[in-house]
Amino acid sequence: MKKLLSVMFIFILCINSILPVTAKTKTEENDYIKINRTTRHLHSRLSKDYSGYDYTIKNIYKTPVTIQSISIWDNASGKVAYLSVKRTGLRAAAETMGAGIGLALPTLCLSVVGAAVAVPFIIVGNQIGNIGANQESKRYDKMQTEQVTLNPHEEISLKTMALHRHAPSMRIVFINPITDENMDLELK
What is d(CA 108, CA 116) in angstroms, rounded to the nearest whole number? Predict the structure, then answer.
């Protein structure tokens, strides 16, 4: 019985460890263009509030397709996302000292001494966390602003982020290679 239970726990542990790695992909396509949106987990302080989204736009037609504009809404710019999670050193120090003072009476003031010793390390750790969030926010702020022509089977990639449970929507306006009319494709 113990072996069976152990095997079940190991199996459940393996399945649960694989689940966060899988990413959700949503696709929209017509006869000319295919859009894939993949949801990514962020790895910095941004992951508390934001999810990353990778867009791949591919020409699936046999002749070149010109994309006039790409618009994404309900997303967050990298700078805004970074500023929303950035913590100052003074705030981190105040939180640490506040926790030490709050526990001063039960610990006979040892928590205040421990908090005072920990403050410089907390400030340095906070700065490292801010640097990581800033670098990751810059990686997820890649947008295509000018007109681009995609050759057959060529693709471009865009990255953005949005608040959890608020997936951004994308609209692509492109020129139909056959009729030279504007067409659009939306991924919601």
Answer: 15
Residues contacting 33, CB < 8 A, separation 6+: 57, 58, 59, 60, 61, 65, 67, 150, 172, 174, 185
| pLDDT of the residue at 29 | 82
**Which residue ranges in the chain fall short of pLDDT 50?**
none
Tell me how far apart the alpha carbons of residues 61 and 187 are, in angstroms, rounded to a whole number.
19
Q: Which of 124, 160, 169 is nearest to 46 (CA)?
A: 160
Contact 42, 133 (CB under 8 A): no
Tokens 């020409």 locate to 59
| DSSP assignments along 129-167, one per residue | HHHHHHHHHHHT-B---S-EEEPTT-EEEEEEEEETT--
116: tokens are 């005072």
In sequence order, the β-bridge partners of residue 173 are 69, 184
| Integer Cα distance of 44 and 84 in angstroms | 13
- Reading the block at residue 27, the tokens are 């696709």
Helix, strand, or coil (residue 8): helix
pLDDT at 7: 75
Amino acid (1-letter code) at residue 112? V
d(C-alpha 36, C-alpha 34), whole Å = 7
**pLDDT digits over 119-128, tens only?**
999 999 999 9
| 85 closest CA partner among 21, 23, 165, 161 | 161
